[in-house]
Design a protein that fits this description.
Elements: E1 2-5, E2 13-16, E3 26-35, H1 38-45, E4 65-72, E5 84-87, E6 90-91, H2 97-100, E7 114-115, E8 127-131, E9 135-137, H3 144-164, E10 171-175, H4 179-190, E11 195-200, H5 203-211, E12 217-220, H6 225-232, E13 238-243, H7 248-256, E14 258-266, H8 277-282, E15 287-290, H9 296-309, E16 317-321, H10 326-335, E17 340-344
Parallel strand pairs: 10-11, 10-13, 11-12, 13-14, 14-15, 16-17
Antiparallel strand pairs: 1-2, 3-4, 3-8, 3-17, 4-5, 5-9, 6-7
Helix pairs in contact: 3-4, 3-9
């Protein structure tokens, strides 16, 4: 089979590798959709910058996989051949405190914690070997493109929104309208947010957020953003803010454009932020949350909600490519002039290399 590797020089290498065999508790998937995450670009594609949990160890790329089981190993207790599944993209030890809570993303075992596409082979290949314990059922109502985005982006957003709470009382500010920011808008809309304001520096992203109806108002990033948001909210600011940008100025905007007693969650990875604790946080009784991916049980809950809400994450996929064109897919995702980019197989591929 072919697999895509990221050597760290803004290119993709396709290599012929052996189709893996299943062992105890493992399944072999026929890949159907594997979407590209911003962290792949930030930490691997341009240069191998990640350390520890973000340290790329030269495996097949892709940590947002969805596919169909074609073979099960001995000891599998729940899933069977033919099942459609999402892969939670970190395989944890299963016995540390974080794993027992369902947060394999935070597994503390240096020996056994392995992320798909980072420390073990990921979804940018024709087949993927996964552990049964890492699987989430994909209902027939959702496509494999939907499922791939749940595996990281939408799951990450859902966790963050659960921490700050979203309801019909809330105006929400989203800083950064890349795929995670767009997912935030989509989920906030279904969770009942009163008004959604989005900020980004790229015109393409602002237009996409407006076109998809994910933001009621979009603003170009700039020093006047805090006053603009306050003008839109009768001088009060928003009740909730979500930073998906990892940009220092955008993060400061998210904090300062939030009203008293408001809540802010940081989802964007990397970068820095500078603020004044007393006037920006303490005196206004604000709370800042950090949120990293999600738990496997909350991801399973999200899948149920997507069906209930008739919400399809695949609507955010603007470009689909065959595995042979993975280099084009990563290059486009790196440019930022797109929504979500997917490498697809079989029935998910008819629109390969085209816009929505």
């Amino acid at each position: 089979m072919q697999g895509a590797y990221l050597p760290g020089n803004s290119t993709v290498e396709l290599r012929e590798v052996r189709v893996p065999d299943v062992a105890h508790g493992e399944v072999l998937l026929r890949m159907k959709a594997s979407t590209i995450c911003g962290s792949d670009i930030r930490c691997i594609y341009h240069e191998h910058l990640g350390k520890g949990p973000e340290g790329y160890q030269g495996y097949i790329a892709g940590h947002e996989p969805a596919g169909q089981i074609i073979k099960t190993g001995p000891g599998c207790r729940c899933f069977k051949e033919g099942d459609r599944v999402i892969v939670y993209h970190i395989s944890g030890c299963g016995v540390c405190n974080d794993c027992r809570r369902g947060y394999m993303i935070s597994c503390t075992s240096e020996k056994y914690r392995r992320a798909y596409g980072w420390q073990r082979d990921g979804g940018m290949a024709e087949f993927l070997l996964a552990e049964e314990k890492d699987l989430i059922p994909l209902p027939d109502e959702l496509t494999f493109g939907d499922g791939a985005q749940v595996a990281c982006g939408f799951g990450t957003v859902y966790e963050g929104l659960q921490k700050i709470g979203i309801c019909g009382d809330h105006d929400v500010l989203i800083t950064g309208l890349g795929p995670v920011g767009l997912a935030t808008g989509a989920l906030c809309r279904k969770m009942g947010a009163q008004r959604i304001i989005g900020i980004d520096i790229l015109t393409d992203r602002l237009e996409l957020a407006r076109k998809l109806g994910l933001c009621d108002t979009v603003l170009r990033a700039g020093p006047e953003n805090v006053s603009q948001v306050r003008d839109l909210t009768r001088g009060q600011g928003v009740e909730r803010a979500v930073d998906c940008s990892a940009n220092d100025a955008a993060r400061a905007t998210a904090i300062r454009a939030t009203r008293k007693w408001g809540r802010i969650v940081f989802l964007g990875e990397g970068g820095r932020v500078e603020f004044n604790p007393s006037p920006d946080i303490i005196h206004d009784q604000k709370t800042i949350y950090g949120s990293w991916v999600t738990s496997i049980w909350l991801m399973e809950e999200l899948v149920e909600r997507l069906v209930r809400w008739n919400l399809h994450p695949a609507d955010l996929i603007t470009h689909r490519f065959a595995l042979g064109d993975a280099g084009k897919a990563y290059s486009l995702m790196s440019s930022g002039r797109c929504g979500k980019v997917a490498v697809c197989f079989d029935e998910e591929l008819p629109k390969a290399g085209t816009s929505r």
